[in-house]
Design goal:
The complex is a heterodimer of chains A (about 700) and B (about 160). By secondary structure, chain A is α+β, with helices and mostly antiparallel strands. Chain A has 21 helices and 22 strands. Chain B has helices spanning about 60-65, 140-145, 145-150, 155-160, and strands at about 5-15, 15-20, 25-30, 45-50, 55-60, 75-80, 90-95, 100-105, 125-130, 135-140. Classes of the chains: A alpha+beta (about 700), B mainly beta (about 160).
Amino acid sequence: MSVDLSQFIPSFLEESFEGLELMESSLLTLEAGDNETIHSIFRAAHSIKGGAGTFGFNEVTEFTHLVETLLDEMRDGRREINQQDIEILLESVDCIRLLIESARDGEPCEDEKIAKTSALLTETLNATKTESPSDESPVSTEDNGAENLTYWKIQFLPEHQLVQTGNDPLLLFNALADLGEVTLHANADELPPLTEMHAEELYLNWHIDLVSTCSEDDIKEIFEWVEDECELIIHKASPQKQEATEHTASVASKLTSTDTLQSKTPSQAQPAPASRSNDKKSTAKPKTEVGSIRVGVDKVDSLINLVGELVITQSMLSELGSDFDMTKLDKLTSGLEQLLQNTKELQESVMRIRMLPISFAFNRFPRLIHDLSKKTGKSIELVIKGEQTELDKTVMEQIGDPLVHLVRNAADHGIEPAETRLAAGKPEQGTITLDAYHQGGNIVIEISDDGGGINRQAVLTKAIEKGIVEPNASLSDAQVFDLLFEPGFSTAKEVSDISGRGVGMDVVKRNIQALGGRIQVESEQGKGSTFKVNLPLTLAILDGQLVRVGEEVYIIPLIAIVESLQVEPKLVNRASGDMVLYRLREDNVPVLPVYQLFNLPADNTNINESLLVVVEADGQKVGLMVDDLLAQQQVVIKSLKDNYQQVEGVSGATILGDGSVAMILDIQGMINIALQRAQREQRNIEKVAS
Amino acid sequence: MMNDTEQEYLTFILDGEEFGVDILCVQEIRVWSAVTELPNKPDYIKGVINLRGVIIPIIDLRQRFNKEPLEYNDKTVTIILKSPKAENPMVVGIVVDAVSEVYKFAAHSIRKAPSFGSKIDHCFLKGLANVGNKLIILLDSEAFLNQDEFYSYSPSEENVIAH
């Protein structure tokens, strides 16, 4: 029976990327003598190597092997941990990531960085080799193998259930035979009488003699997938001269199943990595595990559905409660029952949580700052606060790049060079602070630096130069800083390769707006700047204003509404054609009658007696003519695309308290409908005229 | 593969004719309930309903097949169809005159439909089957539960544009 391994590749990739993240963050905090951290880095590398080997990603395996060897030397204390090696390892992490990505895409990876780093690693490894010839770790450049035959005595004591997990000892032995000459002695002492024997259990154990040039690691690698389910004792049988006694001790490391339980927990981020050190060391392991939840999106969506139903039940009950008498008792009981049901289901799916701590997005910044401070020669400290603040996964995924941009900017433009800082009486080391916290129904992410701040005058001069503002316009600070987000705007005097090309801040703003968020800038010359990103907690729930047109109820996103007003007939103007304009203070706002746009019967078609909801989309204000304003409430957004298709003018739908469906209006889409109609009419008129 | 696999069909009445759909595509049968209208849509799309938290479009099959629509009353039936394909789990409700029976047809007893003389788009037809003297028109559920096919054709395009 063959197992289709390819189905496990996605989990391998995911685990590997997590492992790489762990390696990266651990490397950044690594200090000499910090054995636990080295162990966790080593384990991550080892898991990647093992997995890559299984799936046949040979390039990954080869490269990771070098990294692992270097780490192994550090782990055993044969190599001092120095900054230079850490840099090489960080580079290697990048390379492994590149290699895994290209393995995933099935393309050969031709980045010269990999060859360079690989050469560097080999060089570093060889350097130690000459220093300590007793090194027993394999190095790919090792070529004196033939004379180095080692006699290994392996005791393989599998647990009875070994074969039930799909492992076959014969395959292991075949793999061993590939390494060298194998002599097997099976021990059948434990074999029970036939009547007590269970067909699916394994009662044998083996003594294996292996003559090979291989290292202990190579042997262990073969047993990697069964090591939780067996006792494995590996001895070197022919002691060689250069072998130090302490080595023999560590070679006889005994693998037990202390972490079997852990590896079976499904939510475990990493499969219990090979505990290759002795028992005492492996007890320190849980501390370094990445706690993560991996959830299929379908499960997440079903949770959102449940929340939706809960919201519906809640609004039904509160509707009932606001006007209750004893005749409605039945309704109340059934409503409460429904609530109970919803709560239960919700409880059951509590594992399918969509919110993740923002540390997922913040994780990449220590490395970024590390690289940036190296590149710019500035000394920068990164302070991260509120990393436990939770944020919707979708928002998180999309906010990553804008945040990177803002942090780069802060490091590049914000923080001044050391001399300038010292001259200004500031500490030499600059500080960039990342902070996240909840405020109302929103999450706020702040990126602040204690650098030079934004030069208001420079921004203004540049804006005038670019023709974005009038030379004599008087602008508030906020308005001036807002100019930074104009396309093609950059105040950096010199364009560096980090930032300053002026393509970015406008993209940052657009991305944030696409998420329904806002960005604000506060800055004080000489003291630093703060970029405040305001984001909705989730994209699944929206604050809406319910309006009625004819018999239909529509929802206008609260964030789009400027104001709602009763029309004053004398402020209504008719422009050419059918266009109606309403004078709102100094603005002329085009009026869009919803009933006309959507072809609906309405109570009131007379603009002079109607209600107008003034909304804004992308800087364009329009007045929506509606029949009635109803309640304001939070609504759960449902897609129409699942079973139907996108409808122009409608961004989605929701379910109201009475169970009916209401459309959520898409202001931009409605403007588009109106524009298309106007154009079509224009064409018709032209046709008639000609 | 056996060519003689039997399949069950749910049949319904539409303007005096009997139609059949693969029963595995039928999620449930419900009475007509009020819909929320969609803006600027062809007449045959009556609107959407909330079916236990899922928003489902409701199609009047008479209008979709260019027949005279009936007044809706409390006996009007909606059949909720669900695509069995996992990658495209589309759900749609169709309004029909009445639900009739469940029949079993072997593959060989289904005859190809003639390609003319029908107001129904040809791509929806799977074939014809006989039960006694009755002729049953079997609909191709795959084409039926395909968004592009089902929603693309609009028999009353002028109505959409006019306002």
